[in-house]
Amino acid sequence: MAKNAVVIGSGPNGLAAAITLARAGLEVEVLEAAGTPGGGVRTAELTAPGFRHDVCSAIHPLALGSPFFRTVDLGVEWVQSPAAVAHPLDDGSAVTLEATVADTAAALGADERAYRRLFGPLVRAWPEIEPVLLGPYPFSPRTALALAGRLGLIPAARTALAALGDARSLLDATFATPRARAFFAGHTGHSLLPQERRPSAGFGLALVALGHVFGWPFPRGGAQAIADGLVVELQRLGGAVRTGTLVDELPRADLVLADVAPRELARLARGRLPARYERALWRFRHGPGAFKVDWALSGPIPWRAAECARAATVHVGGTAEEIADAERAAWNGRPPERPFVLLAQQTLFDPSRAPAGGHTAWAYCHVPNGSTADLTDAIETQIERFAPGFRELILARSVLPPAGLERHNRNLVGGDINGGAMDLGQLLFRPVARAVPYRTPLRGVYLCSASTPPGGGVHGMCGHSAALAALRDLG
Predict the structure, then answer these.
(1) Could you say which residues of the chain have pLDDT below 70?
(2) Does a structural domain hold residue 228?
(3) At 132, is the secondary structure helix, strand, or coil?
(4) 139 shares its domain with 156
């Protein structure tokens, strides 16, 4: 008789876990509280009829680099903008993340050589770096030694070690020009960490390198296509997804994998967890939240810098110092006065998301976890600063503060889109310090959300690694 498994939550990690288990021959059922599967990869008409917006994640630099996603035919048409990222500056110019290190460096003036020295070896060594960054985890002693040996032999080893440091130190040691400093600071801003806190440098290094290796793609038609592709693969393997099914306690099965936040696991266990482990789950720290706005627009965003029209992702934040101030404020419990805005403008390259002539824009900034402050005007003011006339194009807007994001997805505690603060204390040992972080003290019960390694991002590797650990335990 086949073993059975229940997966709670149908985000990319939950579906990756379910597919991994189904491939091993288990009977798998996924339970999802929402009416549609997908978790952080859902698409909906949030503003006006015909305008399709991604509810949470929109751009996916980790998707093509995911070892798990490469094993699944998602049926997704990936769209790549000519430049992966643009970073506009007050002088009317912009720095862009181009496909090659050389083309990106050429626009950095006096920092051209510094950029080549930093990212050239990193990009060439990506095959060695990828398994360290994404897993699957946990490494066996033999695998760990092999990876350490491979990394130690490459020129990027020193840079890989710098990834554990803070962005401010790396910026000061590497770049002299405001253009290069602003460009790199924008990438480190994805960490939801202050630039002075480790390992914020690692986020910037990884995201820039990913742009050169894989680009920053997005699915034609919306992020929902990723979830739909994963569901089709699971169903092909005999698994099932039940939406609109709220789970109030851990179900009975040979294996239970929970794509949920640590505190939600504690709730579902209903007192069955050892007190020490349960306290650790409740102590798990969540990082700053996101304040998100989507717009239906009557035309493309009128950027002063023409280069911005070549990129689906735009980092709107000005100088490195301004970005540092905004991220430090959110971390320290203060809404930023001039927020660092992460913006996506997919309809320039995917007109299927809006009616003829219309456009969409998706953006968010970081705020204190659970903040109730309204950052709509501050975000739009920042965009208007680099794109005068932006407000005149707004037909409708959808505003999702941290509480709204959490209502859409209970894993986004206080609006935290990374599944927990990803500083050094919680990057490797999340949610608790255990040899196998996915395994809980309850027999057959595992955690597989972004609150486990390797953390946030749309890659499915938390679920895949958790499922592999569960299968090893099951024998």
Answers:
(1) 1, 141-161
(2) no
(3) helix
(4) yes
One-character DSSP codes across 272-288: -S-HHHHHHHHHPPP--
Largest CA distance in the chain: 69
Three-state secondary structure call for residue 351: helix
End-to-end CA distance of the chain: 15
pLDDT confidence of residue 2: 80
pLDDT of residue 296: 98
* C-alpha radius of gyration, the chain, whole number: 21
Residue 329, SS3?
Answer: helix
DSSP 432: S
For residues 341 and 186, give the distance between their C-alpha atoms in angstroms, rounded to a whole number. 9
Instruction: For residue 225, tell me if it sits in a domain.
Output: no
pLDDT at 149: 64
Cα 68 from chain centroid? Answer: 16
Residues 190 and 111: their CA atoms lie apart, in Å, by: 22
Structural domain tally of the chain?
Answer: 2
Record the tokens describing residue 461, joined without a space.
């590797």
Q: Could you check whether the bond before residue 388 is cis, i.e. omega within 30 degrees of 0?
A: no
Q: Which of 357, 273, 343 lies closest to 308 in space, CA to CA?
A: 343
Asked if residue 455 is part of any domain, the answer here is yes
Distance CA 227, CA 225 (A): 6
Containing structural domain, residue 20? 4-33+245-284+420-474
Of the candidates 5, 2, 30, 1, the residue with the CA atom closest to the CA atom of residue 253: 5
The CATH number linked to 155 is: 3.90.660
The C-alpha atoms of residue 174 and residue 184 are separated, in whole angstroms, by 10
Q: Which residues contact 327 (CB under 8 A, 6 or more apart)?
A: 189, 192, 193, 194, 195, 288, 336, 340, 366
Burial of 276 (0-12, 13-18, 19+ CB in 10 A): exposed
- Residue 65 forms part of a structural domain: no
448-466 per-position pLDDT tens digit = 999 999 999 999 999 999 9
**Sequential DSSP letters for 387-455:** STTTGGGEEEEEEE-HHHHHHH-TTSGGG-TTSS--SHHHHSS-SS--SSTTB-SSTTEEE-STTSTT-
Looking at the fold, whether 258 and 352 belong to one and the same domain comes out as no
CATH number at residue 427: 3.50.50.60
CB 13 within 8 A of CB 40: no
pTM surpassing 0.90? yes
Task: Let me know whether 208 and 129 are in one domain.
Answer: yes
pLDDT at 305: 98
User: Are 171 and 150 part of one and the same domain?
Assistant: yes
Based on the domain organization, do 162 and 273 belong to the same domain? no
Question: Tens of pLDDT along 414-424?
Answer: 999 999 999 98
Specify whether 269 is located in the same domain as 195.
no
Instruction: Tell me how far apart the alpha carbons of residues 413 and 405 are, in angstroms, rounded to a whole number.
Output: 8
Which one of 367, 382, 408 terminates a domain?
408
- The tokens of 384 are what? 């208007």
DSSP 106: G
87 with 183, same domain: the answer is yes
